[in-house]
Structure formats: C-alpha cells, structure tokens
Design goal:
Distance between the termini: 28 Å
Helix content: 25-40%
Radius of gyration: 18 Å
Low-confidence stretches: 1-6, 258-262
Strand order of the largest sheet: 3-2-5-6
Shape: globular
Structural class: alpha/beta
Order of helices and strands: HHEHEHHEEHEHEH
Largest sheet: 4 strands, parallel
C-alpha cells in the first residue's frame, strides 16, 4: 500500500477494483455544452496533442490512472452556472478516491486529511449556521457542484500512488483556459485559491470584478501554518456574505453529501 494511503472500501479482500480511467477518449467524457469551446480549442493544440500522446502511452503500458471521468466537474457545473471556483492541484491518488471534483472523494470512501480539514473549517466558521455532524457522512462534494461551485483541479489525472505524477503534462493549459473563461463570463464569481499552486493562477482573474480569497492549502502540512492558515480563514462564510450582497442565493455548504448527483 502506498505510503500515506487512506484505506477505503476498495482495500478490503475480494473488493471490486477501484474505478479508473479506461481510455483516452475525451469526446466520450460528458461535459456541459457551454464548456465545449474551451475543450474544442484545446484538444488539437500542441499542448493537447502532447497530453493525449503521454496519457495513451501510460494507459497502454498498464498504468492505473485516476479519476475515471477527468472532466466531471465540467459536467456537473456548466459555465453559465458557476458562482464559486475552488481550485485544487491534482486528483487524489488512492484507490477509489478521486471522482473528478477537486477535494471530493467518491461516496463510501473515507475522507482524506485535506478534506477532513475542509470539514473542520466549515464546522469552525462562526458565520455559518449550526450544522449536523460530519462523522460518517459521505466525502463527495457533488452537492456543492450542483449549486454552482466549480471544483476544479489544475491537473486532471494522476497515477495510482504517485501524487502530481501528471503535473506539467499539458492539463494546465486547458485548466488555465477554463479559469480564464470563468473570469471573462459576465457573472461575478468568488475564487478560492488554496495553496501556492492555486494562488499562482491569480493573474488569470480580475480581482476588481470577482472576489478572490487566498489561504494555505488544507493539507495537514500547511493548514495551520502562516502566512495564511487554512483553519481560521473563514472563506465559506465570506463567500456567502458576498453572494448575499450580490443578491445571489448563498451556498448550502452543509448539503447532505449522501444526496448528490450520481
């Protein structure tokens, strides 16, 4: 078992194989129609072609690649519906964890440390209403995606047991396009930039039109450290205050994570 791996239901003896990416087939991956111009411009580009070659080579070599649907965030949250953008780095690399949404894990999988810290901050934020306990609840954040929260990793695939293994392969050129599309779209948005990697995308965002919030990554390595600890950042309450000021519906951050889009 890889070092630091979080046990899941897929680790039990005789358990089914964890879902993985079966093939490089971007035309078959569901996405909302208004994201297609970004995708259609990216696939034939040099970066898109290099990415396709590398992923096909790794899959042909028998590599286990997660998640099974790399573009799931674009299927659950259409561009016109985006109100909040949460930027992550790359998918979880343990069996059955990644489900194509940043910081989210598939139902039935124990939340990894970063997600547990996210729940801790939700529970701590004094601006939010009292909430039911998180213990035993699903770690899938698909219920957020259905409310216009785009859960976007900047790299969209990873190999089993090897964090950041596909970083620099070309996904970043696509996700930069997606972030730029969110920035250009007329509706003001809240961008949550957690960690240095996400904060490196700040230049793509017009801070005069959008709310831009920065904090350390929720990883245990940085969640409590300066300069901007994640625990105590208050981002969830701040987003809801900002949405209310814009006369927008606030986000139900405590949505029942078991009752999410499949």
């Amino acid at each position: 078992m890889p070092r630091g791996h979080t046990p899941s239901l897929f680790d039990a003896p005789g358990a089914p194989e964890a879902p993985r990416l079966a093939a490089w087939a971007p035309d078959d991956w569901p996405v909302a129609d208004d994201w297609r111009p970004c995708l259609d411009a990216f696939w034939p580009s040099p970066a898109g072609q290099r990415l396709a070659v590398r992923l096909r080579e790794r899959l042909a070599a028998g590599a286990t690649v997660y998640p099974p649907q790399p573009l799931r965030a674009l299927a659950l949250t259409p561009l016109h519906a985006v109100r909040v953008v949460v930027l992550g780095q790359d998918p979880y690399h343990g069996p059955g964890q990644a489900e194509g949404l940043a910081f989210s894990v598939a139902p039935g999988v124990r939340p990894p440390p970063s997600l547990r810290n996210l729940f801790k901050e939700l529970a701590r934020d004094p601006a939010l209403a009292p909430h039911p306990p998180f213990a035993g609840r699903s770690g899938s954040l698909a219920g957020w995606a259905g409310q216009g929260v785009l859960l976007l990793n900047t790299t969209l695939t990873v190999e089993a047991g090897a964090a950041a293994s596909h970083a620099g392969w070309g996904w970043e050129a696509l996700t930069d396009r997606l972030i730029a599309a969110c920035n250009a779209e007329a509706r003001p948005k809240a961008f949550l930039l957690w960690g240095a990697h996400a904060q490196g995308k700040a230049g793509l965002i017009d801070a005069d039109r959008h709310l831009v919030l920065r904090a350390n990554h929720p990883s245990p390595l940085s969640a409590l450290r300066p300069p901007q600890p994640f625990i105590g950042c208050g981002h969830f309450g701040a987003v809801n205050r900002w949405l209310a000021e814009k006369h927008e519906k606030t986000v139900d951050w405590f949505v029942d994570f078991q009752k999410t889009v499949a």
